[in-house]
Amino acid sequence: MSICYDSSESLLTLETASSVYQMKIDAYGYLEHLYYGRPAGGTDMSYLQRRYDRGFSGSPYAAGEDRTFSLDTMPQEYTSFGVGDFRTHSIGVINSDGSRCAELHYVSHEIREGKYSIPGLPAVYDNGGEAKTLVITLRDAVTGLVVRLYYGVFHDLDVITRAAEIVNEGTEEVILEKASSLCLDIPFGTWDLICFTGRHCMERQPERRPLSHSVQVISSERGMSSHQQNPFVIVCDRQANEDHGDCYGMMLAYSGNFKAEAGLDQFGSARIVMGISDTYFQWHLAPGESFCTPETILAYGEGLTRISHIFHRLIRHNICRGEYKLAHRPVLLNSWEASYFDFDENRILAIAKEAEELGIELFVLDDGWFRRRRDDNAGLGDWTADMEKFPGGLPALVEKINRMGMKFGIWVEPEMVNEDSDLYRAHPDWALKAPGRSPMLGRNQLVLDLGREEVRDYLYDAMAKLFRENNIQYVKWDMNRSLSDVYSAVCTPSRQGEAGHRYVLGIYGLLERLTEEFPHILFEGCAGGGGRFDAGMLYYTPQIWCSDDTDAVERIAIQNGTSFGYPVSAMGSHVSAVPNHQTGRSTPLALRGMVAMSGAFGYELDPGKLTEEEKQEIRAQIREFHRDQDLILDGLYYRLTDMAEQLPYAAWQFVSKDRGSSLLNLAVLHVQANAPLIHVRLKGLDPQAVYRIEEDGSCITGAALMYGGYTMPILTGDYPVFRLHLVRVCEMPKEKVQPEEEA
Ligand code: DGJ
Q1: What's the gap in Å between 331 CA and the centre of ligand 1?
Q2: To 10 degrees, the CA torsion angle through 721, 727, 731, 736?
Q3: One domain, residues 495 and 629
Q4: Closest protein CA for atom 10 of ligand 1
Q5: Does residue 281 share a domain with residue 383?
Q6: Of 85, 534, 551, 686, which one is the catalytic site residue?
Q7: pLDDT digits (tens, 9 = 90+) for 475-509
Q8: Active site includes 645?
Q9: Is residue 324 part of a domain?
Q10: Which residues contact 128 (CB under 8 A, 6 or more apart)?
């Protein structure tokens, strides 16, 4: 039973394999949160709450003389608004009479088989028999505003999803000013908050700090989930590390403005509220209308690694869709860092020929292939080939590349428009811009108002034509600026607060149509690298270009941070030329290969500039990736070093799900003379098995490799790397198995 209702105690309990989530409808009809954490023996957790007169906090009118009851101190599932809970609220409303109140009382609940979906928004899906849904209805008696709380319970996956639907069942308009997806109160414990912060070219760096009485806000108001913050946070026990301690992962499946607020109340109870950002947001609900929030995905586990493993599996199996969700991805070569805007057909074919000789399977033509696109000043919006560069048009080019034995992929940036484009000249009002103002330019471009149907239709037609007329098997869907001047020419002044969310619904709608019509195309998301790396986009594109920084040393940090929430198969990662174009650093090809191979693997360089020796090495890398890709893309990923410790090396490991094989990757970031030998303890192996180390043929038990570890040889030179491939060869002889391991 993953969802259970105990009517005698008015208890609602959600169970997953390793967690319990409990709520109670209390004597005054409010929905209280009781507990989320390790299974607690089927106990009614309401005994944890001791109520006493909290004086200044006040009590709801209905509580009468009962001064021990206060909304301001009670752990709640989804807070009322303006009626006595002075902490971070879940919902904000302006009623037609101007009052800013909504008092939410329990009305009913319903348990359903399967997982709910959310119209127009990405959401975790059930592959069949994996999930149940709980819907709890709350209502404000005065206005008739109804809030339906949705819970998707994936028992075996250890995941609970949450979303809310707000319905105006009253007779007057209501303006929503905040509509969160999740409120989680954790009344006990000492907690840290981990968020993933960054900038263009250094995305998703973990930042850990104590939860405190000042509410910490993790948010994006850039119209995209952003390079600067990610809609994923972890709240963990102060003592928690990779392997131990209570950890709660919370991920919003949304690609626009978001906000996560986390802090302690006056009595030390933690509250985390997460959802669409309320900055710039407003949504008008006429009688009968409803608003659906995006979904938050919740996972509880012991240790940060466990949280990562839960999200990795969930994203691969229950968020990503389409033919490529679990399939091998072709090894690609992307033209961007090979030639930027400086190419014609001959140059592209020369690069492609060299690529094919290396064993590349997919050639990707990046930015610069369409009319008047000689630099980033012009062309966006006009999605037809530049006939000066490609006299035979794209079909002729694609055919030549296909004849070389490679698939063909292309770069597009449909959400944007240059002022110097036919599209903008014809439809200047299609761009987001506020009346009377010159809008901010980002990379010389404006943002199209994807909230408008005619804009989406134009883009659908342009993209579908491109994909239909050419044998395109991969699309890099880029987006190279934040949203500013978010004003839609088709929204009334009072409804401009809807434009940002309508944009996100628009991009999802467009991607839904295209991915449905072209299921054979592998879509890769991109936003100046990893500026829109989130579960919302992964619903449409199973991989996302992780960062515009292709320097292998920097990429170790970026991919390490990304791995806390997102699987390796989602991280587009390429070997680029040296000196690196972003940092000027030179690193060996072995390091670049090892790092790029810890992701959706490819190259982004001009192979014509490689030496014969480098070409041989690349051929070997591609063979190696083919051999190891199941282990890498579908195995369990372990972070063996903590980047925060700034060690002179970094190590990470893949272990196949049956623990039959493993790959240890280690990169020395700072070589030192006469330094202590590097030693790491491996993880996730079968302690009772013997593993053969492919590199030297030696055999060591899983127990020894995990508890004793492995000492590296002396590693010298420029950024040396060390790899160990382990294969389970047999079980440990019975007499050598330690009794506790047998148990
Ligand atoms: C930004 C992307 O992240 C790059 O990889 C490249 O595609 C450029 N845009 C092209 O304009």
Answers
A1: 18
A2: -20
A3: yes
A4: 367
A5: no
A6: 534
A7: 999 999 999 999 999 999 999 999 999 999 999 99
A8: no
A9: no
A10: none
